[in-house]
User: Fold this.
Amino acid sequence: MKIKLLVLFLTLCAPFWVSAQFTETFESTSVNGATSFSSNSQTFNITTLTGGSTLKVQHAFVGFGWSGTAADDKFIDNDGTANTLAASFEISSATAFRVNSFWIYLADISNNLNVTGTLTITGSYNGVTQFTATTSSTTFNNKSAAQNNGFTLIDLSTFGGANNAVKNVDAITISTGGNFNYIAIDAFTWSGPLAPAFTTNPSGVAICPGLNTSFSVSTTNAYAYQWQVNTGSGFTDITNGGVYSGATTTTLAITGATAGMNAYQYRCVATGVPSFVPANSNAATLTINPSPSITTQPSNVSINNGGNTTITAQASNATGYQWQLDNGGGFNNLANTAPYSGVTTTTLTITNATLGMNGYIYRLVATGGCAPAANSNGATLTVTNAIVSTSGSLGNISTTYGTSSSSQQFNVSGTNLTAGILVTPPAGFEVSTDNTIFHSTVSVGAAGNVASTPIYVRLSSTAPVGSYSGNIQLTSTGASTVNVSTTTNGANTVSGAPITITANNASKTYGQALTTTTGSSAFTLSSGSLKNGNTLSTVTISYTGGAAANAAATTYTGVITPSALTGANGFLASNYTITYVGGNLTVNPASLTITANNVNKTYGQTLTGAAGSTAFTSSGLVNSETIGSVTLAYGAGAAATDAVNTYTGQVTPSAATGGTFTASNYTISYAAGDIIVGAKALTITANNVNKTYGQTLTGAAGSTAFTSSGLANSETIGSVTLVYGSGAAATAGVNTYTGQVTPSAATGGSFTASNYTISYVGGDIIVG
Assistant:
């Protein structure tokens, strides 16, 4: 035979041929019509099971086979015997194998492709079916001789929806139905068998004694099973009987497990084909949960009438608890109703026990996941009377805040106590057993009898101002509470500690308004002291005078009034007798500047100072106040003869008065103005000149032929320069030549030209 060998992979635990893949194309078969063939030294037999047609090696049709990649000459088919009956053929071997794939040609009795029918492939080992895969004619539609010679690949790793190529078989059955009458098979690919393997290992289980359970596995390529148990000395085979059944199946059943089987381990041994060592599953542990048991028994307890107590027990392997009571008629379950609580826990609480409960017996019933329940021993409750006694009485006491009062005394004693006596005074008081160290509570004695003991009582230094009364309570577990009154007639009192708060002195400027201020720190603690670490924070400041914007500049004594003192670190104003002392308010004058207006005058004019002038400006007036007038005095520049110039600061204001302002409310600064002397207007007019025709006029300086208007201070002009225009020539015709005598350059005399603004006016030349 011609064999195509494809080596897929090697394993460390199996022979080479087990992992190799072989493809038989029948090209080397020597006998036409043979019903067996050999591949890789393994013989395969072809057996007809049903249908009457025979599957055999075919040599007669050259080129009609398919090697998987090309046409070949030899294959196996049922040619010559095909009929219309359903056919079933088996390919088997004495040694296990696995089918990977093969190519199949399916047609009707007339060799027509693309007909309807079914194909079923079944694998078995030792007569036990390992898989069955079926498909319909849909898989073989659209086939032609031109496509793979009409053959279709059957891949057992996917055919039928499962990977059956990994399953060991010793026979594979090919069955057809419908119109699939002619069958041809080529390129038969197979591999050696696989070792058995577990796909699901057994899981550990936990049960109670006497219950049933099971362990299960699932495998591949296993054909026999044996369950084993390890009881502590290694694994041994299990046989059916006693608590075991299913010892040679995939499920081991245990019926009525015993406590002695706790921690047993179980595994399954799976046997495959003879060439492989059997496989062992993982071990699974059987846990037999124990029943609950009492580990700590409850103890007897003794309490006083009205007292509280607890009874406790402990159990192992318990998930539930129930306390029971035997009061003479046997044990019965308790409920969480007074005086009981915690009846379903390990600790039973008894509150306000009565004398009638004396001798009651209690036990705990513990239940768990497994029966039976566990009962504890009984614990007996003893209830007795406890008595607290006192002697002596207390009178009234008083103190001031921050100072402890003097102390008073009474005595306390007790009998049949289960605990000491707790002495608790009402608010504001503190107690002591040695009259030295005081506390908010003190304890006296212990269980048993307590001898008469003095108790000292006083008002605490931290007690707020007020009246204090109430009872001092004497308590002891199981004993009735005893009250000792802190008063006889009236009440105990704490009065305020005296302190004086003085407002700081302050000042303001006239025109500024002050309003009431909260949260001010402008004060001092001027007498007294703070108590108990108290600190001061703020006061409210108000004013009884001087605060208005128009309050006159002066000192207002005691008008800054403090009130509403606040503090921190426990400060309460009510704990103090507070005296508030006012501070002084000084109103300072406001700054006022009065500036004289500048004065303009003409040269030759005289300025005379006087009171009542309004020629000024001011800066700094408040409250919409006004100034009526000031007195002005003039310096340099005021005289008529003072030359043209600016005389800085020569207008001096003073003595502001009148209006709505009051001078005493201001600090007044006077600022001087300037005197500005301007030039005086002066007109110089040339005299008219008469001449006879033919006469010539010649201009020159030093002429007095002019008149002037505007000189001041009796001043004079010496001369001017005259210039002649038209009409001055000898040939000028007889006429009046207007404005042709032009004066200029006035000089001399007593005047100063710079003090004047000079206008020159021309005279006429009259030619006769």
Remarks:
- The two ends are 176 Å apart (CA to CA).
- The mean pLDDT is 93.
- Helices lie at 16-19.
